[in-house]
Amino acid sequence: MNTPDKPKTRLPRTTPINPQSTDDETDRSVGEPGQSFPESAEFHERLAKIAGLQAVSALFHRDPHQVIRLYFDEKMKKAVGGFCAQMAKMQRPYRLVEDSELQKISGTVLHGGVVAAAVPRVAPDFDIENAMAWAQSGHPLVILDGIGNPHNLGAIARTMAYFGLKYLLISDHPAQAGLSDAAHRVAEGGLEHLAIYRAVGCAKVCRRLREFYRVVGTSLGGHAVEMDRLPADPRPLALVLGNEEHGLPHETLNACEATLLIPGCGRVQSLNVSATAAILIHQMASKRPAPSPKQADHRGHGAQHRRRP
For a tag on the chain, would you pick the N or C end, based on fewer CB atoms within 10 A? Predict the structure, then answer.
């Protein structure tokens, strides 16, 4: 909203480009019939800038109505033709621009030739009731508590999507990276395939999850074990990953039932957290049992409250 002492700044009008034609179409307004968006520079600066064909494709697949404007360069004209058709249907602008403008819009030279300016995604607060249905269906869970580098967040999301994991919790740790433009770019569309929630008070959440999940963290400590050496347990795994430098906070680590390690040759102390996540997520996915017919019938319909002995 513009303040009285701050004049409204309008962005340049945008003329849609049909990727299949060299002629410009008529100018289109922002928004669907009956819906409009602020034209102020401040509004557009707050929009997420989703860059790269894979990330933009996943966003259009998940919810094209989140895209407010679309920008692309000459080499991507044919690839984004379907997106432009959707933008035209929604009466929202799309533009063919130079590489230098794409860099300015996206804030990076690694824009991949296409950038979607979209409504930022907000992770809702996690509700423990959700975990009952997830666990009954055998879905593993990944929890990030203090992962500060958005590139690591994006890489973990990409790995989760690749191996078919669906649920990601992000803590309210002050160092925790959020769903930033950089995270989306590195995720290559992976974030759009995940259900993402905010875990307020991660240690408390981990303790409550233990009713439905076996909650395990990562540590270099002496009590850490390899995943294959965990005792048998009917509960699916909830993997908790901590800060790149400091690891898991003490309270969160204490809330875990076990800690995992990945043995190496000893030449370096540890792996990057996204590499650690990739190895463990692969192991989690390979151990995930196929749902029984009864579980399949209950998907999407909640689950009965189950208590561990």
Answer: C
Furthest C-alpha separation in the chain: 70
Which tokens go with 193?
């395939």
179 and 65 assigned to the same domain: no
* Domain that residue 245 falls in: 128-290
Q: What is the pLDDT of residue 154?
A: 98
Q: Say if residue 63 is in the same domain as residue 144.
A: no
pLDDT band at 289 (very low <50, low <70, confident <90, very high): low
Is the Cβ–Cβ distance between 147 and 243 less than 8 Å?
Answer: yes
**Pairwise CA distance, residues 275 & 283, whole Å:** 13
The total domain count for the chain is 2
Residues 51 and 163 in one domain: no
Q: Which of 45, 41, 101, 94 is nearest to 67 (CA)?
A: 94
Report the CATH number that the domain containing residue 87 is assigned in CATH: 3.30.1330.30
Say what the pTM is.
0.80
Provide the strand spans (E) within 85-194. 94-96, 114-118, 141-145, 167-171
Other C-beta atoms lying within 10 Å of the C-beta of residue 63: 12
On whether both 167 and 282 belong to a single domain, the answer is yes
Q: How far apart are the first and last CA of the chain?
A: 55
Which DSSP string do the residues of 174-218 spell out, in sequence order? TT---S-HHHHHHHTTGGGGSEEEEESSHHHHHHHHTTTSEEEEE
Confidence of residue 4 (pLDDT cuts 50, 70, 90): very low
Residue 206 exposure: Cα atoms within 13 Å on the Cβ side: 28
- Residue 306 forms part of a structural domain: no
Strand 258-260 with 237-242, pairing: unpaired
Q: What's the sign of the alpha-carbon dihedral 69, 164, 220, 251? A: positive
